[in-house]
């Protein structure tokens, strides 16, 4: 043992300066992640602070310390990279969102979610872009062209509803949670697809042909990405059902699920599609089919493994955003024009508020016209919460801004630095101010007695009727598998709703064709030692 340790010390001593600095940075960052988890746990019941804000504050404090220690030369441990964000950090977050979602609530409200997430994002992008064009010229900002303004619209149309979702509960407010959650995922995907489409087109001379081509490319990305995600999920379900790895090794089926999930995202990037949409729908399909084809122990493992990876990725993002906010490299370029950066941030924040209101309330009114049941209509208080949930900006906006206005995480131009610092300011302000007020606002608009009155049939079906191994946030499958349970009388009117009819026909098709081929609940592999399905 001593000889082994002795042989290691020379290697450690021979590490280059840059290698040693990387090791120190990684150690500190992991320690900070641990601190975020511990402090977040201690503040669990706090009325104002949640885990996201905790990580952001710790990141800010760490950035201040590093800035002082380095003599004002540096404020972060790692250089932000949009490639790191989109390829390694974002996939587990989005996949877990699809894997854990309550599918019944999501698809019952699918039309409304798509209206908010797709149409709403386009409306918000248009208002932010047009508002920026009109106001920035008055500030003598001449370095932006039409493509830049449209990119700014896409950047700041990307919402971050994590703070609101951490306060809402699926079982207490199923309608509101599904709308906020679903819109957040579709919004991110739409913003990224829109941003990439803007980057790929020459918009200096817009004509009807270019506009039609732009829209056609946009809808193609949406449809192709969704089909790719569903196809990859079905392929994983078919492979695991036919080969049934669990009879020999549960490790193999867990590893295959993880790799197939990540493969869906990378395939989308390979074919220039939307990885967010692809991995999200891959998660939905895997939870509906693949998850039921693995052993019982693998189900518990995958549920908690995906949730843990997503949690760590989210904490990592907020922690880094806090540290990067004080990056002296960007702020020194706007040191002689601080008023301009503040003006740009204020204008964009105002446009975000306006753009959000311009579609939430009108689309909610239109959605309510299509709903026959008052239980499924969006009340004004719920509309205010939906509007509020989309005011916060986060890592997606940061990544898109870095992609547009920096090269390798660095900028040497004052004009680009103004846009980066404005983005950082908006992310910090919206997350800290709006995030801190989220819990009190929801408590005011949805007091406990009101929350309980909005509980739908989803609250009667989940935890008490499923395996106790699944946590309160992990029960996404049971919503679709309780056809024999009596429904409350107040929900009988919903049977006439078109979305429920579509759901009923889908259930018949699913039971007759899809489940026998791809597996799923009630269609476990017949091989010896295969998992026994846990019925309600």
Automatic annotation (TrEMBL):
TM segment ranges: 20-40, 52-71, 77-99, 106-129, 149-168, 218-240, 261-286, 306-326, 347-365, 385-405, 417-437
Reactions catalysed, as given in the entry: Na(+)(in) + H(+)(out) = Na(+)(out) + H(+)(in); K(+)(in) + H(+)(out) = K(+)(out) + H(+)(in)
Domain Cation/H+ exchanger transmembrane: 31-442
Domain of life: Eukaryota
UniProt cross-references to Pfam families, sorted A to Z: Na_H_Exchanger
InterPro entries for this protein: Cation/H_exchanger_CPA1, Cation/H_exchanger_TM, NaH_exchanger
The species this protein was found in: Solanum tuberosum (Potato)
Membrane-protein topology: Multi-pass membrane protein
Localization of this protein: Membrane
Keywords: Ion transport, Membrane, Potassium, Potassium transport, Sodium, Sodium transport, Transmembrane, Transmembrane helix, Transport
Principal place of residence: membrane
Descriptive protein name: Cation/H+ exchanger transmembrane domain-containing protein
């Amino acid at each position: 043992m001593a000889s082994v340790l002795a042989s290691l010390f020379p290697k450690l001593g021979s590490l280059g300066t840059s290698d040693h600095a990387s090791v120190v940075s990684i150690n500190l960052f992991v320690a900070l992640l641990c601190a975020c988890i511990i402090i977040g746990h201690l503040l669990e019941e706090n009325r104002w602070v949640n885990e996201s804000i905790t990580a952001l504050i710790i990141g800010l404090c760490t950035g201040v310390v590093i800035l002082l220690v380095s003599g004002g030369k540096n404020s972060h441990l790692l250089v932000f990279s949009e490639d790191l964000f989109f390829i390694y950090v974002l996939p587990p977050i989005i996949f877990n969102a699809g894997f854990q979602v309550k599918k019944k609530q999501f698809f019952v409200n699918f039309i409304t979610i798509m209206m908010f997430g797709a149409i709403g994002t386009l409306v918000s992008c248009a208002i932010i872009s047009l508002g920026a064009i009109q106001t920035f010229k008055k500030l003598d900002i001449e370095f932006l062209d039409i493509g830049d303004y449209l990119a700014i619209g896409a950047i700041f149309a990307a919402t971050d509803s994590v703070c609101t979702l951490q306060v809402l509960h699926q079982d207490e407010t199923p309608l509101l949670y599904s709308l906020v959650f679903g819109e957040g995922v579709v919004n991110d995907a739409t913003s990224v697809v829109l941003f990439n489409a803007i980057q790929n087109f020459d918009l200096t001379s817009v004509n009807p042909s270019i506009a039609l081509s732009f829209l056609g490319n946009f809808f193609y990305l949406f449809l192709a990405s969704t089909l790719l995600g569903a196809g990859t999920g079905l392929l994983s379900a078919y492979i695991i059902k036919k080969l049934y790895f669990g009879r020999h090794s549960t490790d193999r089926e867990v590893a295959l699920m993880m790799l197939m999930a990540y493969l869906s995202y990378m395939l989308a990037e390979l074919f220039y599609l939307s990885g967010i949409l692809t991995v999200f729908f891959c998660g939905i399909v895997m939870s509906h089919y693949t998850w039921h084809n693995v052993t019982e122990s693998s189900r518990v493992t995958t549920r908690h493994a995906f949730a843990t990876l997503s949690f760590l990725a989210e904490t990592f993002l907020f922690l880094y955003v806090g540290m990067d906010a004080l990056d002296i490299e960007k702020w020194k370029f706007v040191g002689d024009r601080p008023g301009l950066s503040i003006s740009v941030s204020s204008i964009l924040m105002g446009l975000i508020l306006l753009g959000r209101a311009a579609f939430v309330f009108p689309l909610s009114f239109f959605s309510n016209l299509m709903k026959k049941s008052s239980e499924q209509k969006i009340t004004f208080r719920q509309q205010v919460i939906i509007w509020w949930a989309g005011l916060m900006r986060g890592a997606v906006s940061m990544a898109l801004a870095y992609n547009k206005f920096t090269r390798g995480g660095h900028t040497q131009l004052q004009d680009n630095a103004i846009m980066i610092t404005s983005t950082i300011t908006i992310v910090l302000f919206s997350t800290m101010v709006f995030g801190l007020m989220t819990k009190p606002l929801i408590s005011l608009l949805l007091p406990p007695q009101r929350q309980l009155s909005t509980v739908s049939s989803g609250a009667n079906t989940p935890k008490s009727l499923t395996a106790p191994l699944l946590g309160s946030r992990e029960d996404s499958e049971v919503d679709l598998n309780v056809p024999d349970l009596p429904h409350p009388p107040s929900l009988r009117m919903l049977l006439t709703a078109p979305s429920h009819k579509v759901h009923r026909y889908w259930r018949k098709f699913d039971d007759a064709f899809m489940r026998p081929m791809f597996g799923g609940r009630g269609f476990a592999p017949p091989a010896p030692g295969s998992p026994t399905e846990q019925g309600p």
